[in-house]
Specification:
mainly alpha
Length: 108
């Protein structure tokens, strides 16, 4: 019976050592995945920021193309006058401008 108790205690200590090892491994992986400087959460944050910056870059490139196109049209005086009347509601002397707002245009 003494031998049986020795074997039992060896098996239990082996399982305890294995359990402690697994707890250390799981704790280490958790620290690496969550709390490290190069953690998964930080990488996700950086990926989201990169995606937002790419979207903003595309939006700004589109605005630049539109503005360059607009500047090319501003070489002609008649287009410049038309644009100023439309955007800034400029008018000539003795001219009245009436603004008509439609219900569908208010939703924009």
């Amino acid at each position: 019976m003494n031998k049986a108790n020795e074997i039992k205690t060896k098996i239990l200590t082996w399982f305890d050592a294995k359990r402690i090892l697994w707890m250390l491994v799981i704790t280490g992986i958790t620290i690496l995945l969550i709390f490290d400087n190069d953690s998964v959460l930080y990488q996700r944050k950086l990926s989201r920021e990169i995606r937002n910056l790419r979207d903003e870059n595309q939006r700004l490139a589109r605005e630049i193309r539109e503005n360059q196109n607009l500047l090319q049209h501003f070489d002609r005086y008649d287009y410049l006058e038309k644009y100023a009347r439309k955007i800034f509601y400029l008018r000539k002397k003795n001219e009245d401008i009436y603004l008509i707002k439609r219900p569908d245009s208010l939703q924009r």
